[in-house]
Amino acid sequence: MIDLHYWPTPNGWKISIMLEECGLPYRIVPVNIGAGEQFKSEFLKISPNNRMPAIVDHEPIGGGAPISVFESGAILQYLAEKADKFLPKDVRGKYEVLQWVNWQMGGLGPMAGQANHFNVYAPQFNSVEKLEYGQVRYTNEVNRLFGVLNKRLGDREFVAGPLSIADMAIWPGLWASRTLARSSRTFRTSSDGSRSRWASVRR
Amino acid sequence: MGKRPAVMKGKAVGAELRAKPGINTEEQRRVLFGQTAAVVR
Predict the structure, then answer these.
(1) Which among A8, A12, A17 has the least Cβ separation from residue B6?
(2) Between vectors from CA A107 to CA A103 and to CA A108, what angle results, nearest 5°?
(3) Are residues A102 and A39 in the same domain?
(4) Cβ contacts of A125 on chain B, cutoff 8 Å
(5) Nearest Cα residue in chain A from B16
(6) ipTM of the complex
(7) Are residues A65 and A99 in the same domain?
(8) How confident is the model over A47-85, as pLDDT tens digits?
């Protein structure tokens, strides 16, 4: 059994989607991030960066004591290895997938998070003048990243070969970005006008 | 992607936990956006 320390946000969805796709048994351990439960000492032992999701696998690969993993990209990789699904074993296929997982973890995820913050949340408690630079900076970067993704998906159904953990890393935030698209004057769902079947879900 | 049964099921997990999505109170705002180095000391 796998404990999924979780709250229903795009980062949490990455792992709940992966667990459902793999058919692995799991139970939800709610971490109410709005109430500060991510700062509880028991949770910090599992996730020292005080962020969810995190997992504890009580029947880990190779046996032995339970294993805990934090950071959604690392969790996706762990679950792929455990289930032997959604991450190729051959070196070319494996790194084609992992480079897109890391593209999401280091690029689209944090940039979209900042764009969302400056365009959706911050205007509720800051003046327009204070926010303009951040709004333009992060919106432009997200638009660039969406352009990269749209180009990638222009001639294929999934980001890296067949359905993989790269798709499960990228899709939840993309779906959530519909809110951002509605809230920002400068936000564009596509920088070059291209549309793919996969990415069109965000409109 | 979004029409896959497992994706829909995974995205629905725990939906009932968030009665009102978003940042709705000053306390939520402080917890989520007010973290400093002091939080991890």
Answers:
(1) A17
(2) 95
(3) no
(4) 29
(5) A8
(6) 0.86
(7) no
(8) 999 999 999 999 999 999 999 999 999 999 999 999 999
